[in-house]
Design brief:
This protein is mostly helical and 146 residues long. The protein is built from 7 helices and no strands.
Length: 146
């Protein structure tokens, strides 16, 4: 059954704000764990990423899982109002979708060239630090939100 226009513009209810908090906590905690691993074992994590980029079959399987997760995220939480946290959580879902589509359409050689061009092997600590800061901020906001 299609939503009527007035239902589509209804205020965000407690269930969706619960979802916002849950997704903020999820992406925050995931970012913290992954980025700590990158910071503590930059060489190993970078080598694993480079090996994954070179293994087209494994990359496609993981990318399709990320694509499915991103679509599910967006279908469940596509809120462009309701506060900064709600919009940030929505943007994360769209960013995951964009990344999954990017990886899906890129050739293996182009993806490897892109990863090298952004300086990932040498800049893993920088990216890990930025991701850790984001993870702490969004997890904190998710746990603090009421």
């Amino acid at each position: 059954m299609a939503l009527q226009p007035q239902e589509r513009n209804a205020p965000v209810n407690n269930q969706s704000s619960d979802l916002t908090r849950y997704l903020a906590r999820l992406i925050g905690m995931l970012s913290i764990v992954v980025c700590l691993a990158i910071l503590l074992r930059a060489e190993v994590m970078t080598a694993r990423l480079m090996a994954l980029v070179q293994d087209g079959a494994a990359l496609m399987v993981l990318d399709l899982a990320a694509l499915a997760a991103a679509i599910a995220w967006i279908l469940a939480h596509n809120r462009w109002s309701g506060g900064v946290l709600s919009v940030v959580v929505t943007l994360v879902g769209w960013a995951i979708l964009a990344r999954a589509l990017f990886i899906l359409v890129m050739s293996q050689e182009s993806l490897l060239a892109f990863v090298t061009a952004i300086g990932l092997p040498g800049r893993a600590p920088v990216y890990g630090s930025l991701g850790l800061a984001f993870g702490v901020a969004i997890a904190w906001a998710g746990f603090r939100a009421r």
